[in-house]
Amino acid sequence: MSLPSPYLVLLLFAGGCGGAAPERAREAAAAGAQDTAFHGTTAPLQRAARTAGRGSAGALLRAVRADSRPGYDRIVFEFAGDSVPGYRIEYASGPVVRCGSGDPVAVAGSGRLVVRFEPARAHDETGHATIERRTASPGMPAVKDLQIVCDFEGQVEWVLGVPAAAPYRVLELTAPARLVLDVRHGRGGEP
What we know:
This protein is mainly β. The protein has one domain: Immunoglobulin-like, CATH 2.60.40. The chain is built from two helices and twelve strands. The protein has helices spanning about 5-10, 20-30; strands at about 10-15, 45, 60-70, 70-80, 85-90, 110-120, 120, 135, 145-150, 155-160, 170-175, 175-185. The strands form two sheets. Strands 1, 3, 4, 7, 11 and 12 form a six-stranded mixed β-sheet that branches. The chain has a six-stranded antiparallel β-sheet with strand order 2-5-6-10-9-8, with no helix packed on it. A hairpin with a 2-residue loop joins strand 3 and strand 4. The protein starts with a helix and ends in a 7-residue tail after the last strand.
């Protein structure tokens, strides 16, 4: 695969988070078994948390990676621990706002794909962020930019700026726990 360097891999890591090469290799192996002409969905997708309840500290988000692949862009949310927290993924029908301030969030593109994790957190016990870069503009075909809009009271929420509501699919991987979100290039099959 020969893509321009800005499209290859964008790493958003917390300081001191190492060992990414084997994790990316496992993600690539998982992707090799998938077809790039997936149908996906544009409807909301939700999974309840499997273990800890709402009062727990929540799964610790420790890395977010973005990568463009033939036919789709991939965003990987990596968590400490054995499983991905509960999540809800949906296209926003109205403005997206920051959870603490209520300020509107601007993203590139006319579509806004919102990814909410619960119970989860993107900060350590002392309140320091576990993700250094909380906003990025990878400028990929489907995902133009992404930013965290909430890390409060057991909720972590990201918004992805996309050109339009394109189909997406979700995979859950383990060792480490990861939610993999693939967003298809183009609306219905066009590149």
